[in-house]
Amino acid sequence: MTSPTGTQAVDRAAQLLREVVHCPDAVTFTELATATGLAKSTTSRLLMALERGGLVRRDDHGGFRPGEMFVGYAWRGGAEAGLVAVARPFLDRLGDVTSETINLGVASNGMVEQIAQVESTYLIGGTNWVGLSVPLHCAALGKVLLAYGAAQLPPGRLEHRTARTITGRAALQSDLAEVRRRGYAVTDEELEPGLIAVAAPVYSGGAAVMAALSVSGPASRLTRDRIQHVAAACIAQANALSAALGYPPQREGAA
Prior knowledge:
single chain, Arc Repressor Mutant, subunit A, Beta-Lactamase, six-stranded antiparallel β-sheet, 8 strands
């Protein structure tokens, strides 16, 4: 039989959890203690227990959000809006590490559609791609989706966007094989002149790739020497997002 003390602790933990889950944004420690009327020591002890159990998590600013257990359960129904909400901290983290434009993309009607973006911190950054669709074969996001079977090339000729665009299907298949080998895709001025991008796969709980995460910037900054470092950071955050969606990737960083 559960003791009164144990029951009280469970009730208090449930009270904290309700506050976190029902808040549309991250909620601070002080806000939780005030809303529940619990002592700060009790609030701290219970939050640590909830965090250990994956029921709450802290964001980069110390605020509390629903934990991985809630995320994994909610993702079973799958929704684009839900994906953006879950992915946002990982996009922000990748933006902090690289200072470049960060995008999350999914396959849509034979194209790749960017559904979330973090702006570059540089004055010379990138276009706001959110809501825009671009061809799969000449975008780093699209190459990832193609390489891992999350998208299929539409029939017909491949669009020639720049002098560097790969328009031969055999050449593209060779490039996609390289994407799978190293774990990330690169587009070198293939979508727009002067634009370089790298992208890594995002897995769902069913071990299938369902999105891609990218870093893009001008060729003057994303030089050949820097691409491998940026790719490693991109893979790390894509793997962390995959884990939050219920799939712990086995891959290591960029080769």
